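CO-FOLDING WORKSHEET

Operator: S.A.
Ligand of interest: flavin mononucleotide
Run index: 214
Mode: holo prediction, single chain
Checklist:
[x] sequence pasted
[x] SMILES validated
[ ] output reviewed
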Amino acid sequence: MHKVIEPKILYFGTPVVLISTLNEDGSANLAPMSSAWWLNQSCMLGMSRKSKTVQNLIREQECVLNLPSADLVGAVDKLALLTGANPVPETKMQRGYSYESDKFGTAGLTPEPSDLVKAPRVAECPVQLEASLIKVHDFGEPSSLVSIEVAVTRVHIDEKLLMTGEKNYIDPEKWSPLIMNFCEYFGLSGKLHPSRLAPVFGPPSREEGSRALS
Ligand SMILES: Cc1cc2nc3c(=O)[nH]c(=O)nc-3n(C[C@H](O)[C@H](O)[C@H](O)COP(=O)(O)O)c2cc1C
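OUTPUT RECEIVED:
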């Protein structure tokens, strides 16, 4: 039996991304977000123009998308209700947000230099994607929301996540993303069923292997 409801949010579960950007003074900002999806070598990010992250991204034209694993949930939650925007925007003030200039320190995370962009990577995150801004699209007007298209220019992966014997393939069985499901943190429960898509996009050796089996 389905019911018609009017939920305030439609956050059905997406991976958490920690976006690092550079502030005007050269220091780093770090913000958790989860309205992110991927296509080819690009990513679309949904955020508010009022966030320091969006202001930094538009000015600097670049960022790092750091993907925390599920075990980093404590560090991520320390960044909730913080902003690098000073003064804190009125709507955020009403929700209990406060200004924090040292988000890395607050979360106990370590900045490490990136290769191609000025913003630092988060050393503890197993996936770090350097990215450059492609386009800012207005979203859900009238509102301050924007969807931001970025192109991933360099992929850094903790080698522990690689498929055995493969240089360029991430093993989904080894990657444990942190998921924001509505406003709560979740992990993935594990593989449910063999995928018919996996052999098509997997490493050539496995594709041949799977074809040989078919
Ligand atoms: C797990 C998590 C996910 C979030 N996802 C989003 C999001 O997708 N879009 C967004 O605008 N804000 C999101 N937020 C809120 C931002 O982190 C918040 O606006 C923050 O103040 C941005 O920081 P900044 O102003 O320093 O950029 C999320 C917060 C948390 C803790």
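REVIEW:
The longest helix spans residues 204-213.
The CA atoms of residues 63 and 190 lie 30 Å apart.
[x] output reviewed
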